[in-house]
Amino acid sequence: MLKYVLDLVDLLDDPAVDGKRVAAHLDSLAGPEGSGAEVTTVTGERGSTDFVLVRIPGRDGRTRGGSARTLGVVGRLGGIGARPEMTGLVSDADGAVAALATAAKLLDMRRRGDVLDGDVIVATHICPDAPTAPHDPVPFMDSPVDIGTMNRHEVTGEMEAVLSIDTTKGNRIINHRGLALSPTVKEGWVLKVSEQLGELLAVVSGEPLVTYPVTTQDITPYGNGVHHINSILQPATATPAPVVGLAITSAAAVPGCQTGASHETDIAAAARFAVETAKAYGGGRLDFHDDVEFTSLVSRYGSLAHLQTFGRVPKES
């Protein structure tokens, strides 16, 4: 996996990189079938970015009329670069690199004849000159487009579960370098950490499972005026599917706009975990949540789907 990560870091650490070049790279790995990568350029008030979405069909996946479930892998970030303010690939790029490495590995596996049971949809975006934003305790990367636009292009109705990968280093909550797993979030509910995902992460990383706290405000939409740890769980505001955040973490607080702060081996571990999750989820051997327990919770306490919205507008005092 490290080979795919290194190739992508080299490709993305370029002020002229765009979605088409990323798609061409994935095509080169996919063989005669091609990657089928869809590139959509979206322009916002603060610039533009290229969304890249790749569907890797499974042998018994939905695209072929099969019954195997579809996993979504979202590389969440503000931008891969903060030019001209910062020169080079920023820490925030880790989510995009991990997601694209996942797609690269799965496409190369398919070319060689190793086809997963279910479909996998990988989505992220490419922006080498994104703006930055103030944030406590360290500055964040911002994005040329808003979070709603990101969700529309990166979270599809076909995804039956979503693994969201994001650099989560700009905080003092997670004091661990490597990977950390969030509880499952579904329709406004913060559910228990999936034991199956936790066991798989421990096996893939070779380390004891590390999780991190998720607050109610972390799973509400950006733009409501409250603090969020970062955008890792923002996909949960755009889908009824269960969402789990896989955080690429550090022992010290690192600004998302910092260059020279990415650890390629950690990114590779995140991508390996995504590939193994795709194998197990599509094969029916792993679940993101206990559906019976979730149904019981909703029946007993009611829906919390309003937390996926902006809610009521506060009255002026």
Structural summary, described in words:
It contains seven helices and eleven strands. It has a seven-stranded mixed sheet, with helices on both faces. Strands 5-6 form a two-stranded antiparallel ribbon. The chain has helices at 2-12, 19-30, 94-112, 147-154, 195-205, 264-282, 291-301; strands at residues 38-44, 47-56, 71-75, 120-126, 132-133, 140-141, 161-167, 178-181, 185-186, 189-190, 243-249. 51% of the residues are buried. It is of the alpha/beta class and 317 residues long. Helix 5 packs across helix 6 (264-282).
- According to DSSP, the number of beta strands is 11
- Unreliable stretches covering 5 or more consecutive residues: none
Given the C-alpha coordinates, what overall shape results?
A: globular
Q: What assembly state would you assign to the polypeptide chains in this entry?
A: single chain
Question: What average pLDDT do the residues reach?
Answer: 96
Termini gap: 55 Å
Helix content: 25-40%
SSE order in H/E notation?
HHEEEHEEEHEEEEHEHH
Largest sheet descriptor: 7 strands, mixed
Radius of gyration: 18 Å
Number of DSSP helical runs: 7
Give me the side-by-side strand order of the main sheet: 1-2-4-3-7-11-8
Strand content: 15-25%
Based on secondary structure, the structural category is: alpha/beta
List the helices and strands and how they pair.
Blueprint: H1 2-12, H2 19-30, E1 38-44, E2 47-56, E3 71-75, H3 94-112, E4 120-126, E5 132-133, E6 140-141, H4 147-154, E7 161-167, E8 178-181, E9 185-186, E10 189-190, H5 195-205, E11 243-249, H6 264-282, H7 291-301
Parallel strand pairs: 3-4, 3-7, 7-11
Antiparallel strand pairs: 1-2, 2-4, 5-6, 8-11, 9-10
